[in-house]
Structures are given as structure tokens and as C-alpha cells.
Design brief:
single chain, 266 residues, alpha/beta, 60s Ribosomal Protein L30, Chain: A, Alpha/beta knot, seven-stranded parallel beta sheet, 34% helix, elongated
Length: 266
Amino acid sequence: MKTITARDNPFFKRLKQLAGTLTRERRAGQALAEGLHLASTYLDTLGQPRFCIIAESTLSEHKMQQSLQPIMSRIEPARMVVLSDTLFAQLSTLARAAQGGNVIFLVDIPASELPQKITRDCIILDGVQDAGNAGSILRSAAAAGIQYVFCAPGTACAWSPKVLRAGMGAHFLLHIFEGIEVDQLLPHLAVPLLVTDSHNATSIYQQDLTKPFAWIWGNEGAGVSATWREHAAHSVTIPQPGGMESINVAAAAAVCLFEQCRQRNT
């Protein structure tokens, strides 16, 4: 088990880049997945991480050691790295006292090729900028059985620490494509595009959702851009009897996906 205490260590510098610079993170093809839940889910779905990183004090703290033991027992010894508490704190975004911020996986971002023909449900995120919203939508998508997610430019980096945390392991069940433009995706789509709209649209409860669709959710303020909207075959709205003008995009996505699930199971 390797221990690192110097901040000028090349490996630690590498981790710092991944923790703080989204552009480099994309280019590197790697990401940091933090917390017990993400670690466990990664092991269950994709196997061994590139490295498992823990804080030095974790080894001597009884409670922390207990919570980590199920994870550490599954990691190949050569993949274990211990950081001094000072260095670990510079990477962590979770409170260790909550017993979640005590392990970080360095993982490879799965490389996926754009399918030749998309005939199943998929989702498109068009400028969803908030990391929490993006991660929550990915979580709902995975729960609803979606496989493909296409992120247009302007959408939060799918593999950033905050989106990973909000996704709660959904990333490891999905095929995620980033930087996807309209003209790049359309030739591959064999399902109609469906956009959500708060005005002049069919109620989602009246729309037939039993067939596959490519769902599009847009920017939190501006909504779906005209570039994507002009290709949409259908537009649906979520009735809001309470009088609110709109609901959170992540909440809207969950309503839409599980209304689709409901229609297919009745």
C-alpha cells in the first residue's frame, strides 16, 4: 500500500487536476468518484478502479475502518493509495464525519462509440448547467431503464465530482456522450424527438408514451434551444394545478420518465 505525503508528488498533482479542472478532466479520460456508495456501485458494475485512495487517519480510526472494510477487502492491493489527511482534504468534497467522504476512486471514463442506429429511449441534455440537476436526471434515467444519454455543449460535465455525486452511481449503468451537436446525433436517431414545454403543448398524461422517444430537457432558464426544438416531433407539458410557472428540470425529467414507465406497465 503506497503512502503519499508530499504535495509535489506527481500522482497527487494529477489527482488535483482531476478534482478541480473540468477541461483537463474531459481530456484525460479519467474522473474521481468519491464516497462509499459510488465506490461500492463501481465495484459492482464495472469492477476494479484505476486506484482506490483513502486518508491516512482512516487506517487508525475504528469507525472509519469498519465502514471502509467492505470496500478495501475487494480492492487489489496494488491499487491502494494512502494520502496524508492534509492532501486528502484537498481532493474531498464530502464531510468525512458523515462516513461517505473517506474513499475516492480514480476511474477511467468509459469510452463509447455513437450507435449506428438508436431505436430505444434516450435522453438529451441541452445546456443543463447545474451539476445537481444533471446528476439527478442521470439518476432518474438509469432508474427508468434508459441506456443512452447525449449531452449537448453547455451542459455540466457529466463526470465532474458534483454530477457524479448527484448521479449516485447512475453513470456506471449508462452510456454517456458529451459535446454532442444536433447534426451529429440526428442521423443516428430512429426515434422521434420529444421536448417538454410549459406553454402550448399536450399534457404529458394525454401523450402516448408507449413507443420509444428521444427526450430533450434544456437549460434551467432558457429551456430547450431553438436548434433542438425545431427537430422535435412532439411537445408535452406537465400540468401544474398549484399555479407555479415551471418546475425544476430534474423534477420534470423524473415525472416524464416515470409517466412513460407507468403507461407501459398498465
